[in-house]
Amino acid sequence: MFKKHLLSILLITLISFNANAQMLFKESDSLRGSLNKNRDWFDIQSYDISVIPDINNKTIEGNVVWKAKAVKASQDIQVDLQEPLIIDSVMIMIANQWEKVPFQREGNIALVHHQKNIKLNADFSLWIYYHGKPREAIRPPWDGGWIWKKDSNGNPWVSVACQGLGASVWYPCKDHQSDEPDLGAALNIYSPNNLKAIGNGRTGRTDQDHWYRWVVRNPINNYNIIPYIGDYVNWKETYKGLKGNLDVSYYVLREDSSKAVEQFKQVPKMLEAFEYWMGPYPFYEDGFKLVQSPHLGMEHQSAVAYGNRFKNGYLGRDLSGSGWGLKWDYIIVHESGHEWFANNITTKDIADMWVHEGFTSYLESLYTEYFFGKIAADEYTYGLRNRIQNDVPIIGPYGINREGSGDMYAKGAVMLHTIRKAINDDVLFRNIMIGLNKTFYHQTVTTEQIENYISQQAGINFSKVFDQYLRTTQIPQLVLQYDAKEKTLSYEWKNCIKGFNLPIHINYQDKLESLMPLDFQPKKRLIQQDHFDINAFSNAIEKLYYVKVVVE
Q1: Would the pTM count as exceeding 0.90?
Q2: Three-state SS letters, 463-477
Q3: For 44-73, how does the pLDDT look when each residue is reduced to its tens digit (9 = 90+)?
């Protein structure tokens, strides 16, 4: 019955990440992670979400209105809502005619069945009522669900974290990263007592007590739509940015307002640095908010979650060990950086999450460079290498809602730094960063699109370089031999995939030395320096490029 309407797929897919680790994936993983025949035929235009949380009982009830367009004719609609939440009823409107429609539930999926095909290009709305006790996040944001906490004064402090796990942990949606609502979303939150409810975008009007309405006008990913409820105080400022005046708002717990006012002075500096490196903040229409959250932080579009305890570094620590990471607040810089990479440019499949995390981790270095110089940024980036595990490839398996290695953060950042040094043109690199955000403005993308864009703009085919760092765990070895008598340097690449062609450029003793390997044959070049120190030269390479230099 139910499974007849679903895409035919293998019940179990075996994926081998390495010789020692294997993972089993089931049909439910593919239903969640792929665009099957009951998801690929319609495009979400907007969500209008209303939710009433019962804080005492840790339950919710609500309804969601989808507006969608048929990109081909079909009739069955997959709705994602994770157990133990319950769908009460579903209604559909086509051509201004409402009707109640049947649905069948299996696990985290419901299949809504309309008796007639919905025609190509037809607009339709789905109204879904639901309730229940949602999954509770035990260790947010690393595991997802509702967060039910209290502040130090005993007031409720409530929110949600659901990246990776998916927005369907708290509201019914098309829970696939490739389909952002083109016309934005609205979030209506009921808040008890005198607590404030905060959401993405700008606040709208409501005539009902205890209801707060927030509206986003830009496309937004499902996992970024988040409610915050607490004893919040608010202040605002205007940032004069590249697209004019940007409305900036801050929401923090009443008890922390004095600390927050001082710490959040870093926000305009962050905006200044990132607009320099990547172009205008992508969501001027929706404003920018920093909202104190009952967890460490998350890139919730236009309402970034902040929980770094008003300290510089990562909860007071420098993740790089270089010292530079204590010059700024990690969560303000990293999570806000996701407004460009994750929110403006979003990957279609979370297997490609390195585009979010690798670029944004490198933004930490670019922020450091903007305010403290290139040497500081190089030292910070080099320090990130101590976090690389090289356990499994950065890119995960596609179509099953699985990320790759956590190396997408640090290794992704040092890979981009390596590519930047190979380009050897800082102006061009900055233009590539700006161009990415302009070319893929408010779009969902694949890894290949990002890789191809960088290669085309740089004029260097980096496809094998991306393959090496994203799809293997091998660290390239550059083998050097220096003949002092002949003043020649021999070099070749080892421990690489076929065709690896990373250019090396090093300013050594005030002279640019370039090693341009075109194939795997050993090569020689003349070194026109009287006192060439092969060990110092190799150390200089390793400081800037994520390679292992072997001197023979």
Answers
A1: yes
A2: HHHHHHHHHCCCCCE
A3: 999 999 999 999 999 999 999 999 999 999
